[in-house]
Amino acid sequence: MNDDLLPVEKPPRRRALSTIFVTVLLDLIGFGMILPLLPFYAQVYEASPFQIGLLFSSYSLAQLVFAPLLGRLSDRVGRRPLLLASIAGSIAAYLLFAAAPSLGVLIVARTLAGVAAANYAIAQAYVADVSTRENRARAMGLIGAAFGVGFVLGPALGALLVYAGKSDALGHLGPRLVPLTAAGLAIANLVFAVFWLPESLSPERRGRSRRGSWLSLADLRVAWASPMMRGLMLLLFLVTLCFSMMESTLALFCQQRFGFDASHTGVLFAFVGIVLAVVQGGLLGRMVRRFGERGLIRGGITTMVAGLFILPFTPVSQPPLLWFALLPLLAGLTLLAIGQGLNQPSTLSLLSGLTHDDAQGGTIGVSRSFSALARTLGPAAGTWLFGTAGAGSPFWAAGGLMLLALALAVFVLREAPAV
Predict the structure, then answer these.
(1) Is 133 exposed, middle or buried (0-12, 13-18, 19+ CB in 10 A)?
(2) What's the distance, Cα to Cα, between the start and end of the chain in Å?
(3) pLDDT tens across 124-168, in order?
(4) I need a surface site. Which of 67, 88, 201, 238 has the fewest CB within 10 A?
């Protein structure tokens, strides 16, 4: 038997699962390094707040368009070639980002990064290929763990690199040190995957996939036909839209209120990641058993409403900062992270429980499309409000929309079956 081929009938191979974990982790660390830097990097090219929002949106729009196409392509040619190609695309995107001579090229670089990041769904499919139904949930948890760890380590490492870029030894690189380091990590990731990542999809399954359609709306039609599924998808869209409005304007808000730079913002993003990891890794299981998915969805949205309405009350306090000036900011972000940590997994779990076993993959794909659309629209809306209506306006608007989401949740979940 070919060493590069994993039979799908056998239990998950430790080598395959550990390799895909490392691959996704390194990818997410690079993403987390870049995210807090984006607004400040764009300001070098005199970008307006709305143009900064477009920089965020271009990444998610590329994911929205290319994720289903790459997923179906991986069904036909295998997971390994697409994963390797996506890592190579990340290398090119980071290098182009570091060398960008204009804002337009910067947007192209982020678009390319979004195309490459469409591999997360392929990584999930890879895990499904090499696991049995009995241990698939546990195996899928590896992808979630990689996201959590990467979103903590990435911003923290990015903050250290921004600080190092101001030193005499590395001052000639400046903020370019962050994307160049991300490119270095991606190169290491590619070398690692070339030698250690085996193929997971048998030739027989690839042959069957070649007879299918390249683009199908069947999954969307199935999800939309159910009032409960339709309501949960709209709920996922609204909550993600509001969270992305906050996420994309947080750096600009803290720059105006506190004079924060990219290193300070990186620490804030790491703080949010730690709270999310604590909630999802340590508290979520016990809270689901006590309150159920429906209770956590409503409670998570309520908590996020409170967090969004607290943030605009953060006072202006230029350096040296008074510690109590940061309290509204930290309180609001803590509530948002707790709410997101409770709401999103509970929503996805409820969606999964309402879906037939044979349609789980399709439901995941549709939910990712709704999330990607929200992350495309949210940054553009949030930064436009920031530039036209004031620093606090994105949070007020997101809080109002989140109240609408809460009302929708109460209406949709009152007849939701226990799953």
Answers:
(1) exposed
(2) 42
(3) 778 777 776 656 656 666 776 787 788 889 999 999 999 888 887
(4) 88
How far from chain centre, in Å, is Cα 316?
30
Residues near 178 by beta carbon (within 8 Å), at least 6 away in sequence: 33, 34, 37, 158, 161, 162, 165, 262
| pLDDT beyond 60 at 1 | no
Residues 6+ apart with CB under 8 A from 182: 29, 30, 33, 34, 94
* pLDDT tens digits, one per residue of 243-282: 999 999 999 999 999 989 898 899 999 999 888 888 877 7
What pLDDT is attached to residue 73? 81
Q: Spell out the CATH class of 217-419.
A: mainly alpha
Same fold, 10-201 and 217-419: yes
